[in-house]
Structures are given as structure tokens and as C-alpha cells.
Design goal:
This protein is mainly alpha-helical. 70% of the residues lie in helices and 0% in strands. It has one domain: Hypothetical protein af1432 (Orthogonal Bundle), CATH 1.10.3210. The chain contains 11 helices and no strands. One of its GO terms (molecular function) is guanosine-3',5'-bis(diphosphate) 3'-diphosphatase activity.
Length: 199
């Protein structure tokens, strides 16, 4: 049972994340509101991962704020405390680095993350793999989506051993994604769209 303080922290994090991401859209075909993503990550941790640690759930709601918005470490520390700030910083990529280097570092550093950060990273990858299969960015080719799946496997391999339920769910989502993309590879453009809407 969460305390009044913990529920307040959760709702404050949801409001803060919504405000910071309010002008952003996901790259999916529907250009869905960006806030949907951190909510999905937090919900996945709660439902599939059965995580009841408030710092992890709040960190999931805020996990992209430092990386993708004008949120500052000072704001997060003041509103949510040092533990939440440390978690958000731990899952934040250094955007000053080239994209390929950031992706390589995610693989190299994954095994050194805290348990909280590993769980948020794993849930984030699950959500992204699902989205890439069901509503991929319009500009992403089939090859690029397949490469993302392969890269996510390399990251997740270094995150294993922290939440069997989440890891099993990732494996299920990944297997379905690979099957869907393999089928799309054999089809024409129109048939490919039909498969995407059926999955």
C-alpha cells in the first residue's frame, strides 16, 4: 500500500513529465503524444514486472525528461529527491555524443547499471520493440527496424538477471516482432501494411 506521500510523488511526476513532453510527439505513424511512452514504461514495470518500488516507477515516468526536454537535474532533485534524480541520470544518454557512440555505450554500460536502472531500461526496450513492430516511424525502413531489434537484444543481454517476468515478456515481444518483420520482408508494400495492422 502506497503512502499519501508516495501517491503525491507519483502524480507530481506524471504532471511534470506531461508538461515537459507536451509539445513532443512520438515518431510512430499516428504521431502519438510523447507522454504515452513514459506512461507505458511505468505501467509495464507495474503490471508485468510487478515492481512496487516508488522510485523506480517515478523514474520511469521521468526517464526521458533530462534527455529530451528542457528539464534540469536541479528541478528533478527539488521535486523528487536525490534517488529519483540518480535513476533518471543513470538512464539518460549523453546527447552531445554521436548516435552510434550512444548506442554502443548503451551496450557497454548496461551491465554496470543499478537494478532500478536496468529495470527501466528493459521496460523501455520492450515498449520500443513493440512500437517498432506495430506502429513504426514512417521513415524507418524494414532493415532499420530489424537492426533495432538486433541492437536491443545486445542491450538486454547485459540487463538480464534482475526481473525474470520482464525478461520473459521481452523475449515474447521480440519473437513476435521478428516473426512479423520476417513476414513483411516477403510481402509487397500493400500486403506489408495489412500485416502491420493485423499484428
Amino acid at each position: 500500500m502506497f503512502s499519501i506521500e508516495e501517491v503525491t510523488l507519483l502524480l507530481t511526476a506524471l504532471k511534470f513529465s506531461a508538461e515537459k513532453h507536451r509539445l513532443q510527439r512520438r515518431k510512430d505513424q499516428e504521431a502519438s503524444p510523447y507522454i504515452n511512452h513514459p506512461i507505458q514504461v511505468a505501467e509495464l514495470l507495474w503490471q508485468q514486472g510487478e515492481i512496487r518500488d516508488i522510485v523506480t516507477i517515478v523514474g520511469a515516468l521521468l526517464h526521458d525528461t533530462l534527455e529530451d526536454t528542457n528539464a534540469t537535474p536541479e528541478e528533478i532533485n527539488e521535486l523528487f529527491g536525490a534517488e529519483v534524480l540518480a535513476l533518471v541520470q543513470e538512464v539518460t544518454d549523453d546527447k552531445s555524443l554521436p548516435k552510434l557512440q550512444r548506442k554502443r555505450l548503451q551496450i557497454e554500460l548496461a551491465s554496470h547499471k543499478s537494478i532500478r536502472a536496468k529495470q527501466v531500461k528493459l521496460a523501455d526496450k520492450i515498449c520500443n520493440v513493440y512500437d517498432i513492430t506495430h506502429s513504426p516511424p514512417q521513415a524507418w525502413s524494414l532493415k532499420r527496424r530489424q537492426e533495432y531489434l538486433e541492437w536491443s537484444e545486445q542491450v538486454v543481454a547485459k540487463l538480464r538477471g534482475i526481473n525474470p517476468a520482464l525478461e520473459s515478456y521481452y523475449d515474447t515481444i521480440l519473437a513476435a516482432a521478428k516473426q512479423t518483420l520476417a513476414l513483411q520482408q516477403t510481402l509487397s508494400g500493400d500486403d506489408r501494411k495489412q500485416v502491420m495492422t493485423m499484428t
